[in-house]
Specification:
Layout (H helix, E strand, L loop, with lengths): L3 E4 L14 E4 L2 E7 L11 E3 L5 E3 L1 H18 L7 E8 L5 H11 L6 E6 L10 E8 L4
Parallel strand pairs: 6-7
Antiparallel strand pairs: 1-2, 2-3, 3-8, 4-5, 6-8
Helix pairs in contact: 1-2
Length: 140
């Protein structure tokens, strides 16, 4: 992807609306809101038992979200180290510590600028976290 363009990435969960996974504008890549949803519409870090009780794991979901962003960036010729800004949306700020620990496995103080906010809900009740990312990767 060079110059400008949009892309829906094969093998990733299909966007729930008419928008791309990633959009290039000059030397910047903008990754749309990304969750732990898999291509088959199951959610990493969400298990439901036979009685319908959900067990949700913020650590697993955070790892899945960042890995999804990594894969989306790779499809556009970029890497996580090219990310300059991330916005994070948590349904519950009580999950901050677990998300923050996993985030630290991928990024350090030299990583992207970051904002984390609490939101009322995300598009599925089993989603605990969503992220958007902006990366700087000069077009070739």
């Amino acid at each position: 992807m060079s110059g400008t363009g949009s892309k829906v990435v094969d093998g990733k969960a299909t966007p729930r609306g008419k928008y791309p996974h990633v959009k290039r504008a000059g030397d910047f890549l903008f990754v749309s809101g990304t969750s732990a949803r898999r291509a088959d519409n199951t959610i990493a870090g969400a298990e439901v038992d036979s009685l319908g009780t959900a067990r949700l794991d913020i650590r697993m979901q955070t790892r899945a979200v960042i890995n999804n962003i990594r894969d989306i960036l790779h499809s556009a010729g970029a890497q996580l180290q090219d990310v300059v800004e991330i916005s994070v949306y948590l349904v519950n700020m009580n999950d901050f510590a677990g998300y923050n620990d996993v985030y630290g496995e991928f990024f350090g103080y030299d990583g992207p600028a970051r904002t984390t906010v609490a939101v009322h809900q995300l598009p599925h009740p089993h989603l605990l976290i969503e992220m958007t990312a902006r990366a700087y990767k000069p077009a070739k």
